[in-house]
Design a protein that fits this description.
Helix content is 17%, strand content 26%. The chain has 461 residues and is an alpha+beta fold. The protein has a domain of 234 residues: Purple Acid Phosphatase, chain A, domain 2. Bound molecules: fe (ii) ion (FE2). The site of fe (ii) ion has 7 residues, from loops. It comes from Triticum aestivum.
Length: 461
């Protein structure tokens, strides 16, 4: 560590101590400032976007749960030259892939772009916790990958989630993914905004392809749980593209039917000791709508004895004290917050705002249009809200926080990074945020969470 770096760290420590001393229980607005370098997308010829060698080689390989608990896994990939073979073979060793499944395929047009052949194939009859090898591309170029099926859901099953949002495909995005890989999670909860292809004229869909090649190094080997963000809408009536979520839903599958949902954009999975509910900020959620009805039914299905940790994913945050996207999540908060507090949700993860923020347990459900109780209040039944839209995309950092920091905000910082959530047992989980400017193992913000159902103590201290 150089003298300048030591000095900077010392100044940071002094500033944090001073902030704590002068403000008591006030939250922290971290004085850390990331270097202000350009946030540019990696060029198409970057090595992370390399097309795998071999004729018609499967590319953009990614997996996600194929049922609610991971005894099925859906494998997706793209072939560029011709349709090729839709079969996936799989088994517990690379020499023994004796099971097989037949996939389906789709293509789509987007203005002047035509996709490759997009394959989806669900591998079934998997055993929890068993490592499987899988291969596809038979007849042309075969590629082999592996994953471990998630452990059987139960009350005390340790599991480590990576939490990533708004990733994009810049050099910072690459740093975020590398940091996550070094931290070694078992699955990713992705809170929306994948490729940012829509940042380009005509929503250059080649950027959907390059993004999928970029993240293959992780998502071909462990399931990522997808949430739809605004950059998945690709709604562009000015060029005749009026089907919302077209590229996203053609390319990415979710196990929504297994969750009793009628749309791929809202659903649930049960992984280890967690029941994870995925919501769509950009679909109807008003009273009587399909998402409203599904969520009402889904919360009644949650069994905290079987899966103690209740986690909700969405894209647009409800508690965000950054001036970017300020209050955009407000209508959904008004609609659903009372349900989540009543259900004692442990943690709500969102993205959208390109910085990092963690809340204390606060709620704002007492208000009606005559009682004047409009201010969020401490509430140990309320979730912790984490905004983790700091994956590093082309739009850059959101470095404009509101002042003063509201009392619900525990920690906020305008840096790129990712977080991890390590569930230890039914009562304790360790949450940590990692900024990209630190070494991969360093934590910039961390907290031990206690479970709202099994040990609802004040875990904000
Ligand atoms: Fe967003």
């Amino acid at each position: 560590m150089g003298a300048r770096r030591r000095l900077a760290l010392l100044a940071l420590a002094v500033a944090l101590a001073a902030a704590a001393a002068t403000t008591g229980h006030a939250g922290v607005t971290s004085p850390y400032r990331r270097k202000l370098e350009a946030t540019a997308d990696m060029p198409f010829d970057a090595d992370v976007f390399r097309v795998p060698p071999g004729y018609n080689a499967p590319q953009q390989v990614h997996i996600t749960l194929g049922d609610q608990t991971g005894t099925a896994m859906t494998v997706s990939w793209v072939t560029a030259s011709e349709l090729g073979n839709g079969t996936v073979r799989y088994g517990p060793s690379p020499d023994k892939m004796e099971m097989s499944a037949q996939g389906t395929h789709t293509r789509y047009d987007y203005f002047n772009y035509t996709s490759g052949f997009i394959h989806h194939c669900t591998l079934r009859n998997l055993k929890h916790g068993v490592k499987y090898y899988y291969a596809m591309g038979f007849g042309h170029t075969v590629r082999t990958f592996s994953f471990t099926a998630p452990p059987k859901p139960g009350p005390d099953v340790p599991f480590k989630f990576g939490l990533i949002g708004d990733l994009g495909q810049t050099f910072d995005s690459n740093s975020t993914l590398s940091h996550y890989e070094a931290n070694g999670g078992d699955a990713v909860l992705f809170v929306g905004d994948l490729s940012y292809a829509d940042a380009y004229p005509l929503h250059d869909n080649r950027r959907w392809d390059s993004w999928a090649r970029f993240v293959e190094r992780s998502v071909a080997y462990q399931p990522w749980i997808w949430t739809a963000g605004n950059h998945e809408l690709d709604y562009a009536p000015e060029i005749g593209e009026t089907v919302p979520f077209k590229p996203f839903t053609r390319r990415y599958r979710t196990p929504y039917r297994a969750a009793g949902s009628t749309e791929p954009l809202w659903y649930s999975v049960k992984v280890a000791s967690a029941h994870i509910i995925v919501l769509s900020s950009y679909s109807s959620y008003g009273k009587y709508t399909p998402q409203w009805t599904w969520l009402s039914d889904e919360l009644a299905r949650v069994d905290r004895k079987a899966t103690p940790w209740l986690i909700v994913l969405m894209h647009s945050p409800w508690y965000n004290s950054n001036n970017y996207h300020y209050m955009e999540g407000e209508t959904m908060r008004v609609q659903f917050e009372s349900w989540l507090v009543a259900a004692k949700v442990d943690i709500v993860l969102a993205g959208h705002v390109h910085s990092y923020e963690r809340s204390r347990r606060f709620s704002n459900v007492a208000y009606n249009i005559v009682n004047g109780k409009a201010t969020p209040v401490r509430d140990l039944d309320a979730p912790v809200y984490v905004t983790i839209g700091d994956g590093g995309n082309i739009e850059g950092i959101a470095n404009n926080f509101t002042e003063p920091q509201p009392s619900y905000s525990a920690f906020r910082e305008a840096s790129f990074g990712h977080a991890t959530l390590e569930i230890k047992n039914r009562t304790h989980a360790y949450y940590a945020w990692h900024r990209n400017h630190d070494g991969a193992k360093a934590t910039a913000d961390s907290v031990w969470l206690t479970n709202r159902h099994h040990l609802p103590t004040d875990d904000s201290k």
